Amino acid sequence: MGTGLRSSRSYHRRLFLLLLAFSWALVACFIVFQYGREKQFKAERLDTRLQLFNLRMLDALADGATPEEFIAARDEPLGDLRVTVIDDAGRVTFDNSAGSLPETNHLDRPEVAEALARGTGFTIRRHSESTDLYYFYSAMSDGGVVVRSAVPYSITLREVLAADREFLWFMLGVTLLMSVAACGNNNNTSTPGSSTPAGDGGSGTPAPTGPSIYRKLYSSEVTTLNYLSTGTTLEFEPAANVIDTLVEYDKFGTVQPALATSWETSEDGLTWTFHLRNAAKWVKSDG
Fold this sequence. Notes:
The chain has 287 residues and is α+β, with helices and mostly antiparallel strands. The protein has six helices and nine strands; from the N terminus they run H-H-E-E-H-E-E-E-H-H-H-E-E-E-E. The chain has helices at 2-62, 67-72, 110-118, 155-161, 165-189, 233-242; strands at residues 82-86, 92-95, 120-127, 134-141, 146-152, 247-249, 255-257, 260-265, 272-276. The strands form three sheets. Strands 2-1-5-4-3 form a five-stranded antiparallel beta sheet. It has a two-stranded antiparallel sheet with strand order 6-7. Strand 4 and strand 5 form a beta hairpin. Mean pLDDT is 78; it is low at 190-204.
């Protein structure tokens, strides 16, 4: 019986560790998903602001204004904002940041290709051959002309686009606290002293030096410990924890030796012979 109890505790401990690892895996997947989702949300929010500028410039160009006239008519200075106008052939017709207009075709730029295909597009971080800087690009097309605005990808912008790390640390902290609490509870419930079977010698392990105490809460009073004279589950439970059987099941449902070390059956299957353990201790019904 002691072997079965230890196997049961070992099984529960492995099951607990498996569930704990599964919970950590779920939390890790959620954090990775939330981290990427928040970065994408912040990038799309910055893209929306730049696309609003692109839309106003496209409207001005459609009304016959030049890029220079549109920029000069603005109340606020552009600052570090880079503005580029690209025709449907990929040629740059205006660039407020480059000393001279780039001669390379821009149809292969990711944000330009996406804008021509879908109307708008953006690239979070890409190197500019004209200025030798990295930019966050947002482009918009009206079907022909592409207006592209960009801000330098600086340390400040990187911090703006970064995910909120306080949320990540909060999730990790809560998960760690829950894991510690669960581990503590698991250790308390699996402590041998909380459900020690009576020392009948049936487990094959050395008997404890002090008295063994078995504690369990029952729904009603137990009337007898004689498992031969009762048929109720209530009274079978304490008997099962203080009386060893000839054989017992392990955690896989396989019959294992307990009070009997070995056994055999006759050829006709009518006679079973069990060989009992020499060190077994016996008690009478009256104690």
